[in-house]
Structure formats: C-alpha cells, structure tokens
Amino acid sequence: MSRMLFLNLPVKDLDASVKFFGRLGFEFNAEFTDETATAMVVNDQAMVMLLVEPKFREFLEGDIADTSKGTEALICISADSRDEVDELAGIAVAGGGSDYGTPADHGFMYGRAFRDLDGHVWEVMWMDPAVVPE
C-alpha cells in the first residue's frame, strides 16, 4: 500500500521560506495555503507543510525544537545528478541558508546538506541508478 507523507515544519517567516524553497524549484499547493501555512509539493505522494510558529504550536504538546542547539531531523531529497546536488546546495546557501557538514562522496552515492532559514537540515543526495534496485 502506498501512503502519502506530510512533513510539518515550523517557520518564522512564511513569505521568506516560500521564496527560499521556490528558488530550489519547489511549487506550492494554493488549496492548502493561507497567511499561516503552505503546502510545498515534493511529489504526488509527499508534501512539506510550512507553518508559522503560532500555527505549528496548535498541533504540539511541548515546545518547538531549538534548531540553533540541536538537529530535530535530517530531511533528505533526491537529485538527478552529482551536479544537481551541488547546484541545489549552492542555491540554498546563496539564498540565506548555510552549509551543514561536509559533502559525502561514496562513489555510487553523493550528497551535501544545508540548513534552511529556520535551521532545519536538508540533505540533497544522488545515487547511481545502476545500484538502485528496481
């Protein structure tokens, strides 16, 4: 059975986050967008809900993780090539994000990571299609 994935992330400035992720090529579903949240489309089965912190708090029992003191998750997206890994990470850093760690080159797999405007860690990974099982 195929399931959809909805990842919810708190953001301080929704407009800035939309611009940041828009530069990375993501689109947003207008049906699930208002002044407090937007649905960033990863694909037909996965969306990232970006919610301003007060809206995000409505769903919590406890506090929002302080990304300046720790990492709450490693969010990984795929790329079509090694060059695209570098391109996306470069766009993220140029758009106000920051590098996270060092590039990982395993020969058949290559990745880089960055922090977005709110400190969430995103990995961009390419894997040689010849080693991916069908």
From TrEMBL:
Q: Which PROSITE patterns match?
A: VOC (PS51819)
From which organism does this entry originate? Answer: Rhodococcus triatomae
Q: What is this protein called?
A: Uncharacterized protein
Write one Pfam family the protein is assigned to.
Ble-like_N
Recorded superkingdom? Bacteria
